[in-house]
Amino acid sequence: MSIIGYLLRICKKAIKVPVEYKVSIGADCTNLSIISNIEIKYPQQKIKSNCKLILKKFNPKSASDLGRFTELVTLLYIREAYEDAIQVCDLLNDISFHGNYTTWDNVENSRLVKVRILRRNGDEDGVIEVLNTIIPFENKNIWAQQIQCLKTYDTNIIEARKRNSKKDIISWQLIKLEMLIRFMELPGFPVDKARLDNEIEELSKTLRSNII
Prior knowledge:
single chain, 10 helices, Serine Threonine Protein Phosphatase 5, Tetratricopeptide repeat
């Protein structure tokens, strides 16, 4: 396991209980032609890499596989390819929460990126519809721990800069952006939303210049 993977497991404070997914044969998450089209459409290596890995192997019960979906949705959001980001997110529509936050966090983060896009588009009905698939399963008891993870991400970004590791800088910035969007779009999350919104825009701009 990579150092980043290890630290993420610590930060997420996952509650490990038996997990079951409702994924039927022929469900949207098995129709990966959208991913193939995105791989062809965008020249950015980071986008292509995620697409290749998803197309090579996708198990909807795997946290790492779902994490690639989340990163791809986030990358498309950064690139302001909002329609494609929503299409990728919607491939996971048939996945339901049944108790495992390790895997569910990736689905939730993808959906909250979609919420942000829908909110920007003024689609409040769409926002409510997506939030209704998330809020009933939100574990408020770990919110404080999740906020503390931002400090860990910032520390890791600083250390990556000292090593002059562009790859690690971008990886940690992407993870941080996912969490910032999560905190911003979850109703009632205890943060300064105005400050957070500005931070999301600034970090998105930074990543856009580094990746695109």
